[in-house]
Design a protein that fits this description.
alpha+beta; five-stranded antiparallel β-sheet; about 10% strand
């Protein structure tokens, strides 16, 4: 206090007028929140119906949201690693490798070598490597020959005898022969696995997946006698194969992964609460929010990428946490004897404000990624902001409506409830709506 008995202004404390704008924003948000809560309580089924219609539209529109799988579009063009790949591809025509492993009890059998040679020729001819002067740097060429066991022998159509094949392999240095066939470390004899290597260019994952599937199809093409000899198996392997297959699985199973996450969360909540209603009600806004997010992505034409396409699990985890905390607080208020409406009002007045602040903070943190010059991170940040935003809206708007419907209607089908408590619920709703309207 000063010597006049009035509180002195601390040097670090801002003047009151600086808070006027924030106070107005807070009052406006509070008014919107009270109106939204009142609407969710007074017309819960209408709120849920509207939310479901929008979610269904979003699930349908989400099938039109593409996934960018071309690494050249996801990373900066001046990235040294990408520039090195471009230089390598410009000089050699290829920048990666796909291998086909061939397994047989006797790889020196001329019929096995002949099939490997024919298979290699079919794959190369089907993807642009051919003609009078074949070149890996030609634009039409998708795949090029690397090293393979048949290449060690004559380039003519005739395959040497088995004795000649064994003699050639024995004369080769070990470090060279092991690049095409494994060697028994004890006897030095040829093993049971050989490799046919192909060089490939950098391409989007969807095109890479198509190329790999074509190679797989050429191993044993239907309706032809080009399949491997009896006892011989072959499979396509390599890091490009794993990347293309993983991207394809991710793109085709996005919704399945989301459903699996929701199912796992529902089982965990049921194991804790031992109640179907208390396990399912917190998931209602999360389920609807997945459709809303898909609709938002489609509306703003924001594509996914291999990083942001896996975001569903993170959003489910964060949004379910918010929903469970609010619903648990509501049930605590109900167990304390409060009416349905008063329990919701107290839950959202106290815990809801903290949830909203936490959600906004999380959204702001991910929004920082939107300024990144790496498109993969930038799109990841934008998708996260959108998903968390709609999930937070779902928790604040849909959850109270779901709680009202569960207790006033659906709850009697899932759990036994005392009939004499229903008038108190309706009275609580009426008092809450009247109180919100007066404000």
């Amino acid at each position: 206090l000063t010597n006049r008995g009035r509180p002195s202004r601390l040097p670090w404390r801002p003047s009151v007028p600086r808070f006027e704008a924030l106070e107005r924003i807070g009052e406006r948000l509070g008014s919107i929140g009270r109106s939204t809560l009142g609407a969710a309580i007074s017309a819960p089924r209408r709120v849920l119906a509207i939310g479901l219609v929008v979610a269904i539209a979003g699930w349908a529109a989400g099938t039109q949201v593409g996934i960018i799988s071309d690494l050249r579009q996801l990373v900066p063009a001046n990235l040294p690693a990408l520039q090195g790949v471009d230089q390598l591809e410009k000089a050699t025509g290829v920048s990666g490798e796909v291998d086909v492993t061939v397994n047989s009890s006797d790889l020196t059998n001329p019929s096995v070598i002949s099939w490997m040679k024919d298979f290699e020729a079919r794959v190369l001819a089907a993807h642009g490597f051919g003609g009078l002067y074949p070149s890996c740097r030609a634009e039409r060429t998708q795949i090029c020959p690397a090293i393979a066991l048949p290449d060690l022998f004559s380039t003519s159509q005739a395959i040497p005898s088995q004795a000649r094949i064994k003699q050639v392999l024995k004369l080769l240095p070990t470090y060279f022969s092991q690049a095409v066939i494994d060697v028994n470390p004890k006897t030095g004899a040829p093993g049971t696995t050989a490799v046919i290597a192909f060089g490939i260019k950098v391409m989007p994952f969807d095109q890479q997946k198509q190329l790999i599937d074509d190679i797989r199809g050429a191993i044993d093409p239907p309706g032809a006698n080009n399949g491997p000899p009896a006892g011989v198996t072959a499979q396509v392997v390599g890091l490009p194969v794993l990347a293309a297959d993983a991207n394809s699985e991710l793109e085709s199973n996005r919704y399945l992964l989301t459903l699996a996450g929701l199912f796992a969360v529902g089982l965990a909540l049921f194991a804790i609460y031992r109640s179907v209603r208390r396990a399912l009600v917190p998931l209602v806004p999360i389920v609807l929010a997945t459709g809303w997010a898909s609709l938002g992505l489609w509306a703003v034409r924001l594509p996914l990428n291999p990083m942001s396409a896996t975001l569903g699990a993170l959003v489910i985890a964060i949004a379910t946490e918010f929903s469970v905390i609010l619903s648990s607080r509501y049930y605590e208020e109900r167990e304390a004897g409060l009416s349905l409406g008063e329990a919701l009002r107290r839950s959202y007045q106290r815990t809801g404000a903290a949830i909203a602040a936490s959600g906004v903070t999380a959204i702001a943190g991910f929004a920082v990624l939107a300024v990144s010059d790496v498109r993969m991170l930038r799109d990841f940040g934008l998708v996260t902001v959108l998903d968390l935003g709609v999930a937070l809206i779902g928790v604040m708007v849909v959850l109270p409506a779901a709680l009202v419907v569960a207790e006033d209607g659906i709850g009697t089908l899932l759990e036994f409830e005392r009939p004499q408590r229903r008038p108190a619920r309706r009275a609580g709703i009426g008092r809450l709506v009247a109180r919100l309207s007066r404000r």
